[in-house]
Amino acid sequence: MPRFAANLTMMYNEHAFLDRFAAAAKDGFEAVEYLFPYDFQASEIGARLDANNLTQALFNAPPGDWASGERGMASLPGREAEFRRGVETALDYARVLGNRKLHVMAGLIGVDQSRPQHRDVYLQNLAYAAQAAQAEDITIVIEPINTRDMPGYFLTRQDDAHAICAEVGAPNLKVQFDCYHCQIVEGDLAMKLKRDMAGIGHIQVAGVPERHEPDTGEVNYPYLLELIDSLGYDGYVGCEYWPRAGTSAGLGWVKPYLNATRASR
């Protein structure tokens, strides 16, 4: 049975961020994820996790200056020292929160910039991040992101992501398979899941093309979730979507799974 994590960056925006943990737990979620925790003390977030008996499934390493449009640093030449400091900050948070999966964003590349140079920097930074995380039993994940939503993003394809992981060769470096991004860029989701499951470290879902609840749009999620389960994936499936209206009102698609998980405990 798939296990789900509520993405608190996108879901439960009816509440202040620290209050979203209780709202997710009330609706039956046993795990949460979000983009970044760094606006709050790790102890503040940890207290909300503990109070609501929630597992921290995933968050992102610092991405650079997000407000000004940066979307990660891992592939950016000249930013290696800042990237490494960000990894250390993320690991400090992960220790407090019990987090075991850390997404490292690649960053943007301009049309006039050297892709081979960016790739070399990316490989070196990922090797550093994986080695630093290995002692903490933490998996580093990299995510192909569609360039419709994030123009210029360095990593866009599943095969490229898996090739990069293979080249780095770290056992705790895997791919974050976001069904929404993959459908927009490549499609053929089921075959890619079958092909790549051994190298997938985290999965996320959203309706395509509007990025609302997974019960709308062009992707057959009941089929995909059954497939993911049959392939032996035992991690959380992150619900990274923008609710059409109220978050709780739109959870009809996931309630049977949440109820089944609670009944099996």
UniProtKB/TrEMBL annotation:
InterPro entries: HPT_OtnI_isomerases, HyI-like, Sugar_Epim/Isomerase, Xyl_isomerase-like_sf, Xyl_isomerase-like_TIM-brl. SUPFAM superfamilies: Xylose isomerase-like. Keywords: Isomerase. Its EC number is 5.3.1.35. It comes from the Bacteria. It is an enzyme of class 5 (isomerase). One of its GO terms (molecular function) is isomerase activity. The keyword Isomerase applies. Residues 21-256 form the Xylose isomerase-like TIM barrel domain. The keyword Mitochondrion does not apply. Pfam families: AP_endonuc_2. PANTHER family: HYDROXYPYRUVATE ISOMERASE (PTHR43489:SF13), ISOMERASE (PTHR43489). Belongs to the hyi family. This is 2-oxo-tetronate isomerase. It comes from Paraburkholderia metrosideri.
